[in-house]
Amino acid sequence: MVRLEGASVRKRVGPLNLDIGAGTTVVLGPNGAGKTTLLRAIFGLDRLSTGRRHSADDRALGFVFQQPVLLRRSVRDNLAFPLGLRGADLTPVDAWLRRTGLTAQADLPANRLSGGERQLLALARALIAGPRLLLLDEPTAHLDGRATRLVEEVLMAAPCDKLLATHDLGQARRLADRVLFLHHGKLIEDAAGSAFFNRPTTSEARAFLAGDIVE
Amino acid sequence: MDDIGQAFVAAIGLLLTGDGDLYQIAARSLFVTVTAIAIASAIGLPLGAWLALRRFPGRRSVIATLNALMGLPPVVVGLTLYLLLSRSGPLGALGLLYTPWAMIVAQIVIALPIIASIAHQVLRDLWAEYHDLLIALNATPLQRLRTLLWDGRRALLTAVLAGFGRAVGEVGAVMIVGGNIDQVTRVLTTAIALETSRGQFALALGLGLILLAIALLVNLGVHGLARTERRGRW
User: Fold this and answer.
1) How many CB atoms sit inside 10 A of residue B215's CB?
2) Which of B42-46's residues contact partners 24+ apart within 8 Å by CB, and which partners?
3) How many beta-carbon pairs under 8 angstroms link A with B?
4) Which of A70, B17, B187, B210 could form a disulfide with A110 if both were Cys (CB 3.0 to 4.6 A apart)?
């Protein structure tokens, strides 16, 4: 869906070669490893300093930010927004309100929602547009267990490929088909989820999985 | 104190009896200012949006100039426009001097920097908040602009009302280019100045009360909008 070749961003990430394909790919790494920078580069939000980015169709990509950006509108209007941009039918809005449990808050200003509800709304708004690949930058970083579970349920029920940055090992174990492990901006492991968690090949990944502090 | 009290009572009497001169002047004032603000908004709001969204060489200088022009002395505006619009001036052929349109032009010049500058600040902040989201949702440049204008509409209305407040109370420039001609270019502020100089305090005070009421209504409007904005941030 998206391919990077010899890509680097402001000396913070890369150079690296990467092909984002089917399933759920999890980008793991300690804080400051370059996860957000990598996701923004893959999406095309940030320009590459070197290398090339190939995308099958930029309009088929979606992005969910760590801090949900909500429009200064009602919950319903936030959900309807991507459909309105395309001149599409707004019928799916009610179904998404039910799916996310936000029907009762549909006409409230979106900024009245709790942190978990805000992230659910941001996720639903990204999914309602029907992306083929959804990028998520630590979407549950500030959420409690219940809210995290809801977000993961909605996310995994979506029929699209996912690229998820997280430093939550439990979440990575639950969701990952493939793991990309970043350290100091370098991609030092790219493996299937089970292989990464059972047989990490680098000392940094082993330390990270053991819960040691990785600098 | 007695004089002020008597003038105040007389002014209220003029207002209640529907003094023709008084309301005619008030209506002309509103016509001039509302027209000027409509035109200044039609130019200032898109200008503010353009400065917020576009990057181009000299942008910072334009913004700095706009901010500086917010404090433009009205008498200087009046003098400059007088020189431009007088018969021997470059725009003299238009025959605008001493007409309501000259006053409208003066108020546009005074209000435009305020409206454009506040609109720029409002939309710049909103753009910083929405930038990544609108790009992530593949909004076209026109859709981005429409979204910003719609979601920033209350704050933009505040910008318009701020321009209105400055223009409606302005006296120096409209006096110079309008000439304060009875039945033609006399507006609330110039009439107050004239009636005060003639010792007609009741009429001056009556006019002042109307001007005050207009300014108060505008300020209440701004305050009300700010409250709804704070409560729900909409």
Assistant:
1) 14
2) B43/B108, B43/B112, B43/B116, B44/B111, B44/B112, B44/B113, B44/B114, B44/B115, B44/B116, B44/B119, B44/B159, B44/B163, B45/B115, B45/B116, B45/B119, B45/B149, B45/B156, B45/B159, B45/B160
3) 40
4) A70
Tens digits of per-residue pLDDT, B157-186? Answer: 889 988 998 999 899 999 999 999 999 999
Q: Angle A92-A96-A102 (CA atoms, 0-180°, nearest 5)? A: 135
Contact B151 A71 (CB under 8 A): yes
Peptide bond before A159: cis, by omega within 30 degrees of 0? no
Q: Tell me: the pLDDT tens digits for A182-205?
A: 999 999 999 999 999 999 999 999
Query: How is chain B split into domains, by residue range?
Result: 22-223
CB contact under 8 A, A111 and B233: yes
Q: CB distance B129–A69 less than 8 Å?
A: yes
Q: Give the three-state DSSP class for A72.
A: coil
When CB atoms are compared, the residue of A71, A85, A111 closest to B143 is: A85
- DSSP category for residue A74: B
Beta strands in chain A (DSSP E): 2-9, 13-20, 24-28, 50-55, 61-64, 133-137, 161-166, 178-183, 186-192
CA distances from B101 to A122, B91, B105 (A): 51, 13, 6
Q: Give the fold, CATH level 3, of B22-223.
A: MetI-like fold (1.10.3720)
- Residue A121, min C-alpha distance to chain B (Å): 13
The β-bridge relationship of strands A13-20 and A2-9 is antiparallel
Are B214 and B117 spatial neighbours (Cβ–Cβ below 8 Å)?
no
ipTM exceeds 0.90, yes or no: no
